[in-house]
Amino acid sequence: MQWLIWLGSLAIVWAQADFGRVAVLDSMVKAYMAWQRHGGEMLIYAPTPTPIDPEEVEERLQALNPTIPLEVNPMSLQMIDLYLNKQPFLTAYLLGMADYYLPVIEPILRSYGLPSELQYLPVIESAFVPEALSPRAAAGIWQLIPSTGRLYGLRVDRYIDERYDLVKSTHAAARYLRDSYEMLGDWLLVIAAYNCGIGCVLRAIKMAGGRTNYWEIAPYLPIETRGYVPSFIAACYIMNYATSHGIQPIPPDIPREVDTVYCPVRTKLSVIASVAKVPLSWLKFYNPELRAEIVPPGYVLRVPAVAAYEVAEAIARLHSGQLVRQPVAQYRSKGPAFTWHIVRPGETIYTIARNYSVTPYQIIRWNQLWGYKVFPGMRLRIRPQSSAEEGEALEEWGMYMEGATTWKRSFIPVMPYIVPKFIPFRLDVSLIPPSVPTPSEVEPLPATRTRRRR
């Protein structure tokens, strides 16, 4: 037993000593997997690794006139080297997505009186992936957990999850950061608390003897949080000076100009995309908060400005009754809609999604998973791409056509949205949330007589 304790202590010391290994296992791996999920787009040429001059880095950071002290030390330099020389393609993807997100995030943070450097927090939180979901149920580019989202006025349910909404989640994150600063009084401590929680930072301050300097209490913080603040400093540097190191942004394959369209009827994104001849991926990207892809009545859709007229016209035709849903029997699939996939060793949810030409979120939704973690032996329900496209376009044999007809007796109307049936399978214990039944759910056991032993 003693040798096990000694081995565990040695592993902790080894992890604490090698900061780079801990930093790599933190947000960068998540960001790299997110970048891979988008196809792993490569640059035309790979930039030549360049040595990083600490004095030049410090001079450039001070030229930004930051409100938050951005200290240059071996830990932050190691993270800068990771972004620039070891993961240049990921950095190029981040630069491309920043052109869409930062013009929206920065004015909102400024309206709350927050430092502009905080706009780079989503870089290390979610790598600007709108559908990012952690194993702890933190979602969106700001990675808000459900309780925090509801605390700051966000709607979080099965149909609409406003943690994925860019504007609303940014307002909620800004209020959370403002409240954290009122409690802690230091921006580096606020950034650390955004990762591990305010209570964890207060405990670290107490263990450090009441000191409030981040670099002094860092040894008392979790290992992941020790790499969080240096990652933030590196993000502030690369988002401003990555082009000086030969890294050019990879622009996303979506229009930047956005418009809004009011939808007075309940419908699906796939129907609007089909009628308006707009790529469904565009509507999903601009409206990630619609988790079931159902547009409730009275909802304001964000659409590309180049397709705003087509979307508005399609919604008007749906609202006026010019398009009605008709059954199409010949499109009924004769084979099973879902197939079963058994996870093999070494497979991840991203590789499985690529093999079946679906998205990781679709696999999560079809199997009611709590995160992106899978393990060997797990049985996953997967709908092949042909069946998925058929179901989205025709809505379970339903198709919108011109004119008004009636249902034939040989067809049964199908609901636009059918709640997927839960398929039991073996879950990892770490993925199952703790749940305690309420007193009303607990059934009292019948009273039994006990015999006294003599």
Give a verbal description of the structure.
The protein contains 19 helices and 8 strands. 46% of the residues lie in helices and 7% in strands. Among the domains are: 21-245, Lysozyme, CATH 1.10.530; 258-327, no CATH class. By secondary structure, it is mainly alpha-helical. It has helices at 2-17, 19-37, 54-63, 74-86, 88-111, 121-125, 146-151, 166-184, 187-196, 198-207, 214-217, 223-226, 228-241, 269-276, 280-286, 308-320, 349-356, 360-367, 385-394; strands spanning 258-263, 267-268, 294-295, 299-304, 323-327, 339-342, 379-382, 398-402. Strands 1-4 form a two-stranded antiparallel sheet. A two-stranded antiparallel sheet has the order 2-3.
Chart the SSEs and their pairings:
Elements: H1 2-17, H2 19-37, H3 54-63, H4 74-86, H5 88-111, H6 121-125, H7 146-151, H8 166-184, H9 187-196, H10 198-207, H11 214-217, H12 223-226, H13 228-241, E1 258-263, E2 267-268, H14 269-276, H15 280-286, E3 294-295, E4 299-304, H16 308-320, E5 323-327, E6 339-342, H17 349-356, H18 360-367, E7 379-382, H19 385-394, E8 398-402
Helix pairs in contact: 2-4, 4-13, 5-8, 8-9, 9-10, 14-16
Taking Cα atoms only, what radius of gyration do you get, to the nearest Å? 26 Å
CATH topology of one domain: Lysozyme
How much helix is in the residues?
40-55%
Strand order of the largest sheet: 1-4
- The CATH class name of one domain reads Mainly Alpha
Q: Write down the overall geometry.
A: globular
Contiguous runs where pLDDT drops below 50 for at least 5 residues: 1-45, 328-335, 387-448
End-to-end distance: 43 Å
User: What structural class do you assign from the helix and strand content?
Assistant: mainly alpha
Task: Assign the CATH architecture of one domain.
Answer: Orthogonal Bundle
